[in-house]
Amino acid sequence: MGKIDGFLTIDKELPKSRSPKTRVNDHQEIYEDFPEEKVSEQAARCMDCGIPFCHSGCPLGNQIPEFNDAVYEKDWETAFHVLSATNNFPEFTGRICPAPCESSCVLSINKPAVTIENIEKSIIEKAFDEGWVKAHIPAERTGRKVAIIGSGPAGLAAASQLNKVGHQVTVFEKDDRIGGLLRYGIPDFKMEKWVLDRRISIMKEEGILFQVNTNVGKDISAIELRTSFDAILLCTGSIVPRDLHISGRELKGIHFAMDYLTQENKRVAGDSLSAEKNILAKSKHVVVIGGGDTGSDCVGTANRQKALSISQFQYRGTPTKNRSADNPWPEWPMTMTTSSSHEEGCERNWSTLTKEFISDENGHVKGLKVVNLDWTSATEYIEDPKSMRIIPCDLALIAIGYSNPLKEGLLDYLGVKLDKKGNVEIEDWKTNIPGVFAAGDVQRGQSIVVWAISDGREAARAIDEYLEEKSILEEKDSSELMSY
Fold first, then answer.
1. In terms of pTM, does the model score above 0.85?
2. How far is it, in rounded angstroms, from Cα 169 to Cα 421?
3. 108 DSSP assignment
4. What is the pLDDT of residues 183-202, one digit of tens each?
5. Cα(410)–Cα(170) distance, integer angstroms
6. Domain 145-239+403-482: which topology?
7. Residue 425 φ/ψ region, left for φ over 0, alpha for ψ in the -120 to 50 degree band, beta for the rest
8. Which of 84, 28, 15 is nearest to 476 (CA)?
9. Could you say which of 1.10.1060.10, 1.20.1180.10, 3.40.50.2300, 3.10.20.340 is the CATH number of the domain covering 6-130?
């Protein structure tokens, strides 16, 4: 590595964010530009550890010390080739990945981790600026056709990989635009959609076909799909939301988080929505139920819609500032985090159980009854009856996760086997139906973008092997890496 004592002499530094008072008036990404010199300096903090645990922390197996060293040496083109050898979409992961690589960085045992995610984003943006990111059209086509159902990160990664080796790929998407969760689940203030459109444009140039507004199983039959394609990859995600089964759930003004976020993403894209179906937070007391990233995205969106107040509830106890004894490095740290959305304004409530939605005279929610919890163990709690109270609530957003993929329709028509959780059951990415594969949340359950990309790449290898008896995808990526 370049600077032997960089991790001792250089402090962690990240791009500054725009003022919360300013950024809540737009939907642009919140971070300011970070000079290349500073990125190189941050890369120098990579400590040349004997065993780079960041490799195992990253589901993609990114060669992190190698691209860090290249950035430190200001050899950005090499850094780009090293990074893109294992990651199809660094511009996505560099913005919205929770960075498990940083949690498992050896430096993070007793110091702030290397800023791997921002370095990754800086590499790919430099590559786009310099024109190194180009469409690579296969020299030959194999004559094999693959259908990918779902255009989220798993489907896009698989399409990219399968196209590399010459298969003709068609990606089917039920919505009006390509991207899945990346398009309609991620707010623009976390990833502006020109980032997604830029990549899709390259994929189209490479020969990948995209078909939107196509609900497979309804607009095109499963039988037609099986007879027209040599292989099918299911990447439809885990889209059935977990519900909150408490009294008053049927009241108006109570919505699933993804319905709310999808609407706002459509508005930002310039779409006109039906006024009677609008879900808007303006001048309302907003309650977000669920303490994860989706809940945080709801908070940030409600801030931009000028909510009167925003409260977020999580039934779990307040996380600790530092790792507990039963949560050692390099596990994912179960510690307190504050998102950019929380910085913009939100009252966070921990150890709080939602009990009942309260109605007004018109059948619309006007309040939420809650109670504090005393946790007696990691899994058991008792309610504190003295803390029972009703808080104002004109708009409630349920953000408590997803249970499983939608079974009705395509999965039923294909006859794929499901596991006990309701996810598609696979073995080496194959379902029980010959020629039908699955990747991403549809088989894994609700997860993060970097796992989806990894699953898509691995499923592509399995499909290529199925079609050609032997896959060159792993060999191809290794040779790309070793040639620089």
1. yes
2. 30
3. G
4. 999 999 999 999 999 999 99
5. 17
6. FAD/NAD(P)-binding domain (3.50.50)
7. beta
8. 84
9. 1.10.1060.10
